[in-house]
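Moderator note: this is an archived Q&A kept for reference. The question asked for a predicted structure of one protein chain; the sequence and the answer are reproduced below.
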Amino acid sequence: MNKEAPDGLELSQGVTPLNLSTESGFYADWKQSYHVDTEQAILNPYPTDTIMASITRLISTLCAKFQLSHTIEFSAIDTLEQFVIKVIAGERGASVGENYLKQMPLYAVSVVNMVSKYFDAHIKLDWNGFQRMFAKYSPGVPWSSKRMMELEYEVMKKLNHKIYHSLLLGAVERFAKDHILTVGVVRKDHFGKVGVKLLRVVYAQRYNIYKSLRPRVSSEDMFVRFKSNKLILAAAIVMAILKLCGIDQQQVVDRVAETLSNECFVEAMNIIFLRDAILNVFN
């Protein structure tokens, strides 16, 4: 017989549960925006997990081609995802969503252009370069500068003229600065290179990462709250980066996990579970 565990979790035979807290705790300083983001994600019933691989590949390819910063890259991924969420939420019928998905390369270009100008007004993307890319990779997608301007207006209208900063990247950088780089266990450049690669994997494989953890949580509500929390995900990413950088001294790992658990208001073991799920899709 299963024993009742705190917060509505069950101890199933052979399965270690995630001990999730119902307290968000994100009411101070920089964490306030993460609290708001978590609550909005919980309320939004339109998941985009299954198309994140396509979105990530599109945006990352464009940003690499035009040598744009990782801040622009990951913020563009978040912005395009939010656009898709609002499209699905506001339209009826699967055919409408499919029509948008067919034009996703064009929307990706529009979003990259908008986010680039938002972060640096001096950036001017090579439209001829875009056209050559479309001719090579998406020959069936119609292209024109006029069409791109129309799409930019459409995207901004759907998003209420809001560009989405990458909260996930921001939290990873913050945790790394406060708890990793200051103690000198790994070089900053090495941590950064591994971190960027891992962030792309996490964005693209979000569905598979969390799917593997679903059996550990008996309550769907608690699982959705856990899955919607970017602070916890960022903490797990930092722990995964340490592992990939070869930092496996147990004392260091335990200290970092405990510190991050205090930052996220969640038990350290939950971060470790999520770290392992990330590493499973990375390997």
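Archived answer notes: DSSP finds 14 helices and two strands in the chain.
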